[in-house]
Design brief:
heterodimer, A: 330 residues, D-Maltodextrin-Binding Protein, domain 2, 5-stranded mixed β-sheet, 44% helix, globular, B: 503 residues, mainly alpha
Chain lengths: 330, 503
Amino acid sequence: MFRIRQLFTVVIAVLSLVALAACGSSGGGGGKSGPVEVVTHNAVGGGSDVFTRQMIKVMYENKIIDTNWPVRNVPAGDSIGAMSYMIDKKGNAGLLAQVTPTWLATPMTVANAKVSLAQLTPISLVATEPQVIVTNAKSPFNTFADFVAEAKKTPDTLVQAGGSSTANDALTRLVLQDGLGAKWKFLSFEDTGSRITALLRNDANIMLGSASDVSEQVKAGQLKVIAVIGNQKLETFPDVTTTQEQGIDTSKVPVQFRAVMGAPDMPADAVQKYQDDLSKMVETEDWKNLIKEDGLVTQNLQDDKFSAYLKEQTDIVGGLLQGLGLRKDQ
Amino acid sequence: MNALEGLLHGLESAITPTNLLWLIVGCLLGTLVGILPGLGPPATIAILLPLATGFNPATGLIMMAGIYYGAKYGGSTTSILLNIPGESSSVVTCIDGYEMAKQGRAGKALGIAAIGSFVAGTLGVIGLTFLAPLAADVAVNFGPPEYSALMVFALLLVIMLAGDSMLKGFIAMFIGLFLSTIGTDLFSGAQRFTGDQIELAGGIEFIALSVGIFAVGEVLINIEDKTEKQLFKVPSKMRELLPSRQDIKKSTPAMLQGGIVGFLIGILPGAGSTVASFVSYIIAKKMSKTPEEFGKGSIEGVAAPEAANNSETGGAMVPLLTMGIPGSGTGAVLLGALVLYGLNPGPLLFHEHADVVWPIIASMYLGNIALLVMNLPMVPFFAKLLNTPYKVLYPAILLISVVGVYSVNFSIFDVGMLVVFGLLGYVMRKLDIPPAPLVLAFVLGPIAENAIRQSLLLSNNSPIIYLQRPISATLIGLAVVLLVVLAFGRGRKVREQVVEIDA
């Protein structure tokens, strides 16, 4: 019997560990303003997860919120799982999500998806993350216009390293190729690290990504930034010209945004409270440092402006997926 | 700052009571989550992030690194005792470790796993300390053609794991490769073999597959024998529970070899500890004086993969600390932690934040010692658990399996997959098809597929690219030699089987 008891001790210890883990990730929260939980579709350490934690840290350290909100990672189904989790908790005043364009695109590519971004409550589009175009520091291209000129001369030989074919950088390539009449190859890699080493090895010529993906390599003199996509310069790379300045139209390019949305039918007073919190957040010094580090541009679009922006992006992304034959929701 | 100087500075600042306390807490937690399948280091570190970001960066990262390699130590425990691989890197340990447990030598297996982990873990950190800049160069130059060649080589090695029948090895490998194609295709975005199940869009969960095939399959097959007899003989004398001096002597070459192989493969992002552990297993088998014992409870067959698995930690830290490129899931979490501390991981980390990086490296030496001291006394306790009658043990294994699989994604669908793969494991045992090639092919499949497709895209579909690059040409050459050895060395057996099937 003694040994059986020992075994049970181990089993119980193991079970309590799991219980602890479950509590940890679902996080009680607590505190004066009631428990708040923020959902992200990334596993821990992913871009969206880190941004969510940074945002909470800024609000907590500036006493805008009085508890350190726990983050819940729901990576299943590339945002579908996270969205289902939100939609199951209709009317919850304490459930937020950090939403990216993946949340727009993924449901469109799944037949009979029961969830869509339209079901969540818009709160604020906090920031946009303009893509930058980078090359190896020794590359002959000094602007994106140089690259395009070369791509026109030798179609389908230059290589862009990127993510999956439905990721933002891949969709951006489609828009640019159409608009510019140039063609180049697209090499998919699962993670940003492999894309960077592909540039360092000269397997690929360019890569599109967020400024934070590459700023350290740029500082170390391994990579250089040849353009910021859009019409707004980045504080992170003040000397780099925008695609607009280089004479390239990028108005139809899907934009990487970072928004906060709430559970379906979130009470209006709760929405108002979060909007106030976020409006305070974007005024803090910590936030300004953060966006400089991460290469973000503050937007803080709320209410109608947010909805209009979302509609525009939905149309752009939907049209691109349709063109790829990946649209399954219609 | 040169490496030795940096290390001494690092040691000086790592040895403070606070740092040591959190190092031990990290190692202990790591060991615990390593024992449990499912809840891995990434999840544990994630849970502790809010707490750890309150620490100063060095302390927090020392603790998190402790969890990372602590889990590697713990991972062998359930593989050996219960045939439950807690992480993908422990799959190979199951092969000989569980056999040893069945023979009443669980204590020796656990002991050699701890000792091998210590020796190789330390080798890996030495590599990280002195070879990091050099190793980073290798990692950068390893592109799609090189990975393709490495995977061809690795898949050939997988077949060698098959045991007696190469044909059955092939069958297992192809099932594994097929299962790995399920999910969203990276290149086209198309859903492959998912049957419109959203749960399958991200592919089959590895833990559900491996725990199902290994642990649940094993339980099912054993339930058929309705004997009341005790499952495992466990010697009662303390001395017989631990590895003898002769055991250690016999395993030393395997440990050292595993340490070197583990570090080398560890520096390649994506290849990781799974590849390291079984490449080192095969090399150990080829180098051993008693290769016939492999697969039937060879102590070297436990020492080599466990060693490789632990020195991989040192290797995996190289791309993370020198380039800011995480080589694994845990690496990604550590990268996130670095960002949250405001330390931008990248090529300049060593220069700009030497005060944080060197204490972490120094703490890894201390952590390895702490883990050896922590783990060895636990060995007799764990080994004696196997005296439990199977009526208690089997439900416990199933319970741990279900809880472990559920805790990965908190998904009931995954538990369903566990049942499916449990049945598959049962059928495979009935037909005498070895499970290890299936599970390893499942891990290698996506790496191989992506690398091959990336290479062909670069070369406009010309396979010459594999021979144009020196590293990949060398690996392809090795694979050809291996294939020739396989074909001629075992030709007769294969032919006999073919004849049997024809008849």
